[in-house]
């Protein structure tokens, strides 16, 4: 970040264009009232390794769904392949999960829970890549 100080003027900072655009985007977002403890959609997309068997996928789905009732704050979890009508737009991601958590603070609890770590171990064996996205929503 470059700076200069003209005579008699306070210090001025130049920021890069992407940061400036992000600031403008933040400023231009519509006002939304923040509601604490909103539920979370935890969305994860996976790229399966070549040669992964239906049995391995079934094991992953079973163990992942088995986290419900074990992980505090985890309400529900669904796992599946993409819908046939949009699978061609998946950019190589060929399986996904959607987990519903009670509130934002539950993301950390979920991520560190032993049941989730077991799912992570299976994921590492069958997936080349994963993309996670957490989204708050109001009920």
UniProtKB/TrEMBL annotation:
Keywords: Membrane, Transmembrane, Transmembrane helix. The keyword Membrane applies. The keyword Membrane applies. It comes from the Eukaryota. InterPro entries: Dabb, Dimeric_a/b-barrel, HS1/DABB1-like. The chain crosses the membrane at residues 12-29. Residues 40-135 form the Stress-response A/B barrel domain. Gene3D superfamilies: 3.30.70.100. Homodimer. This is Stress-response A/B barrel domain-containing protein. It comes from Exophiala sideris.
């Amino acid at each position: 970040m470059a700076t200069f100080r003209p005579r008699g003027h306070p210090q001025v900072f130049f920021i890069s264009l992407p940061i400036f655009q992000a600031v403008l985007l933040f400023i231009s977002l519509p006002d939304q009232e923040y509601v604490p403890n909103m539920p979370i959609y935890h969305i994860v997309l996976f790229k399966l390794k070549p040669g992964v068997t239906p049995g391995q996928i079934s094991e992953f789905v079973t163990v992942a769904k088995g986290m419900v009732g074990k992980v505090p704050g985890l309400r529900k979890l669904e796992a599946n392949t993409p819908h046939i009508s949009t699978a061609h737009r998946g950019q190589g991601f060929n399986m996904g999960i959607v987990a519903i958590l009670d509130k934002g603070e539950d993301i950390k609890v979920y991520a560190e829970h032993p049941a989730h770590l077991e799912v992570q171990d299976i994921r590492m064996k069958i997936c080349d890549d994963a993309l996670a996205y957490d989204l708050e929503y109001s009920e």
